[in-house]
Amino acid sequence: MAGASRTLYGFRESLSLELEANAGVHTGLQHHSEVNTALLLRWRPFPWNRYLNTSVAFGLGPSYAFRTPEVEQHPRRPAARLLVFMPVEITFAQPRTRNPRWELLVRIHHRSGAFGLVSDARGSNFVSAGVRYRLGDDADLNSRESRDHARAPR
Questions:
Q1: How far apart are the C-alpha atoms of 107 and 22, rounded to whole Å?
Q2: Which residue among 27, 63, 120, 139 is least crowded, i.e. fewest CB within 10 A of its CB?
Q3: Is residue 137 over pLDDT 50?
Q4: Where do the domains of the chain lie, and which CATH numbers do they carry?
Q5: What CA–CA distance (Å, rounded) separates 144 from 154?
C-alpha cells in the first residue's frame, strides 16, 4: 500500500483533521488492487509521550476494489467493490518530538457496507504495520499553530 496524507487543520496541539488517499495491491488471502480515501481525526497528547510519542487516528471514506475481494465473498451476502473504508491506527515515534516526521504505525484496514447504508456486503478487516515519513510542512503544522496561538492577543 502506498499513500499520501495532508493535515487540513490542527486544533491546538491535541487534535488534527487529515485527508489521506491510498492505492495498493493485496496479496495472500486477497488478490486485488484497491484505492481508498478518508478523512481522519488524529489525537496526539498522551501522558507517556516524553517516553514514546504516540498518536491514534480514526477515519472514514470510500474504498474501491478493482476486483471483488475473495475474503469478502459470502454465499448469503453479495460482495461489492465499493464499500466504506474505516482506518483505525496507532503511531509511535521518537520521544520529545512534538510532530515527528518518521513514525511506526499499526492500522486496522476495515472495509464494510456500513450496516447496509452503502451495501449489504460482508466486508473485511486486516491488521497492517508500516513506516510513515511525513513530507513538507505537515509535520510542523501543529507547531506553527501553537506558536501563532501563543502570540495572539488575549
A1: 13
A2: 27
A3: yes
A4: 2-71+83-137 (2.40.160)
A5: 18
| Residue in the structure block whose three cell numbers are 495498493 | 24
For residue 128, the number of C-alpha atoms closer than 13 Å in the C-beta half-sphere is 17
- The DSSP letter of residue 140 is G
Using the structure block, give the residue that is written with the C-alpha cell 518530538. Answer: 97
**pLDDT at 145 (0 to 100):** 41
The pLDDT tens digits of the residues spanning 30-87 come to 788 899 999 999 999 999 999 999 999 999 999 999 988 877 877 777 788 899 999 9
Res 147: pLDDT: 40
- Cα 49 to Cα 35: distance, rounded to the nearest angstrom: 33
Main-chain dihedrals φ then ψ at residue 145, nearest 5 degrees:
-65, -35
**How many residues appear in the chain?**
154
Q: Which of 39, 59, 65 has the alpha carbon at shortest distance from 121?
A: 65
pTM of the model: 0.80
Calculated CA dihedral for residues 103, 23, 37, 84, nearest 10 degrees: -110
